[in-house]
Design a protein that fits this description.
By secondary structure, this protein is an alpha+beta fold. Helices cover 29% and strands 26% of the residues. It is built from 10 helices and 14 strands. The relative contact order is 0.06.
Length: 276
């Protein structure tokens, strides 16, 4: 093995060699300081061949202009120097706050909001209105999560398919005012009139669980005798349960399935029977 050349004090791109740092495989390793202030350990071969010329910030600065790009709830506004010795960007969160985030944290998905996704909505609400523990606040926070939080399990069915929360309701108080003026009660749930539309005062109402179930986009609608209703609504009207009507439709023409009288069929269990 040849004699190791002393590289202390030498410059390679943005890196200045500080000291020997053992070995990296068969090659000598060196601790280097980057012009941005960050320190790394790399092997001498990579330095001499020009494969390592910075701590990583050179690549970020050359390639990545993140202005205007969106990461979770954050939209990048402008470059903001360095944070933790890495390239950083000033971002505006959907909640209105601004935050400075490392480019690497944005691209890796480690930072997706100003922190409001981790509970600051609740903490802030306690200071503003004391309603954080209420059912109404929970409904509002749930909407916000479904539309804005990519980590929410049902985000794909809401924000993930373009459904938004209107600017007016980004804060709880306007939502609370609308809810109380439009018939809110603890027995009702919020429902979008157009299931493909946004959460806005014009597209929302308070409905019973049954009404909301009949307004789901995956409902099966049936048109008969000039009327259009969901399968569950027809079942209720003709006096049989949902599964029985579904079975009828698989066996009979539509008109017969919706007009034939209900029958009782005995099961081996004398206490059980099924509507057909």
């Amino acid at each position: 093995m040849g004699k190791t050349v002393d590289m202390v004090g030498k410059r390679f791109g943005r890196l200045v060699v500080l000291e020997r740092a053992g070995n990296a495989g068969p090659c000598a390793a060196w601790r280097c300081r980057c012009d941005c202030g960050n320190e790394i350990v790399t092997n001498g071969s990579c330095l001499r061949r020009g494969q390592t010329r910075s701590c990583g910030c050179l690549l970020e600065e050359r390639v990545m202009d993140l202005t205007g790009q969106r990461f979770g709830m954050l939209t990048v506004i402008e470059r903001a120097g360095h944070k933790r010795k890495r390239v950083a960007w000033r971002c505006r969160c959907d909640c209105g706050k601004e935050v400075i985030v490392c480019a690497l944290d944005l691209r890796n998905g480690d930072t997706k909001s100003c922190g409001c996704m981790k509970g600051s909505w609740i903490a802030e609400s306690r200071l503003k209105h004391g309603m954080a523990g209420s059912r109404l606040y929970g409904i509002w926070a749930g909407i916000k999560n479904r539309c804005l939080n990519e980590n929410e399990s049902c985000f794909k069915n809401y924000g993930g398919r373009g459904i938004k929360l209107c600017d007016e309701w980004m804060e709880f108080e306007p939502f609370q005012k609308w809810a109380l003026a439009n018939g809110y009660s603890d027995k009702l749930t919020i429902d979008r009139i157009d299931v493909n539309g946004d959460y806005t005062p014009e597209n929302c109402r308070w409905a019973t669980y049954k009404e909301q179930a009949n307004n789901k986009r995956n409902n099966r609608f049936i048109e008969f005798d000039g009327r259009r209703q969901t399968l569950s609504q027809w079942a209720e009207e003709i006096g049989i349960n949902f599964s029985s009507l579904n079975e009828r439709l698989s066996k009979y023409p539509l008109e017969k399935a919706l007009t034939m009288p209900s029958m009782r069929v005995r099961h081996p269990n004398p206490d059980g029977c099924q509507e057909l």
